[in-house]
Amino acid sequence: MHCDLFNAGRCRSCQWLDIPYEQQLLDKQRHLSGLLAFSPVDQWLEPVHSARQSFRNKAKMVVSGSVERPIFGIVSPDGTPADLSNCPLYPASFAAVFAILRQLVARAGLVPYNVARKRGELKFLLLTGSEYTGALMLRFVLRSESKLASLKAQLPWLQQQLPLLSVISVNLQPIHMAILEGETEIILTKQQTLLERLNHVPLHIRPRGFFQTNPAVAARLYAAAASWVAELKVRHLWDLFCGVGGFGLHCAGPDVRLTGIEISPEAIASARLSADEMGLEQIDFQALDSTGFAVSNASVPDLVLVNPPRRGIGDSLCDYLSRMSPRWILYSSCQATTLARDLQALAAYRIRKAQLFDLFPHTAHYETLVLLEHTPD
Predict the structure, then answer these.
(1) Which end of the chain is less crowded, N or C, counting CB atoms within 10 A of the terminal residue's CB?
(2) Rounded mean pLDDT of 190-198?
(3) Which residues fall in the annotated binding site for S-adenosyl-L-methionine?
């Protein structure tokens, strides 16, 4: 992948861009194999490749420059901005959207926020696209509501220019720091979710919800999980840290009872909406802390599926799983070092399968899926 900003040393988000892609995969696989060397792995599956460019469905843009000439991209520590509107990681269609948004910034008088001077209103733009429908979701991160009326007045023009823009919201982030978002989200459109479909599963993305930024590889990750679970013929599974339900809904079926747990009520609302659309009945999605839910339960399902944030599942959940000993654990990890730590704590489990999914090309990051079976002495 060619990137002028990388070659000029102005953007290093893709730290590994100068490494051939096949070598990137080899290095990631070696890293993962080294971390899991403490335990035998019965079956290593081939790493899942990604497209080299245009694979990201979401752009997070710092807004800098002036109201007449806004710059969307990143700002270096010395305050120098870099325009990422044509970043090759994004779909080609995003560049035209950003061109319209530059006009919108001027029309609405959204002065870009300056962290050093603590002045301005518009901090970030977050654009997400659906590969399934082509629709777009746009979030404006503002410092206050002072320009909210001006922005609302420009929405008819904006939607006329961008008919695929179906979800628009404003997030208020008043803190004088480069923090991405605040707690208050104001939806400006009737439609509140962006529909994506991965494999056969409809998934609803909300403005503040987490969703994988590489849908093509995420679809293969979910499909692998569904295939592995189907081979086990489980009757009841928990999906902990379930988000909008991607893993659980792929693994669910008429003969499988699913309990999905996620602390975000918005994510749970999306998961329930998907389950209803799929006509699934043996489904129970709850907005609870995943660890708290698990450790307070006296019963245990056939399989526990976990997809935690980078910090991993932690000591409390590892202790619970070790004590209650469900036969199967399916662990999806975005941070292999915490995965290895957690697997070492789950000493009574054997790694039956492991596979690397390259959701983050040109970086050191990757996703890992491992299937564990309880094998007591």
Answers:
(1) C
(2) 96
(3) 212, 241, 262, 307
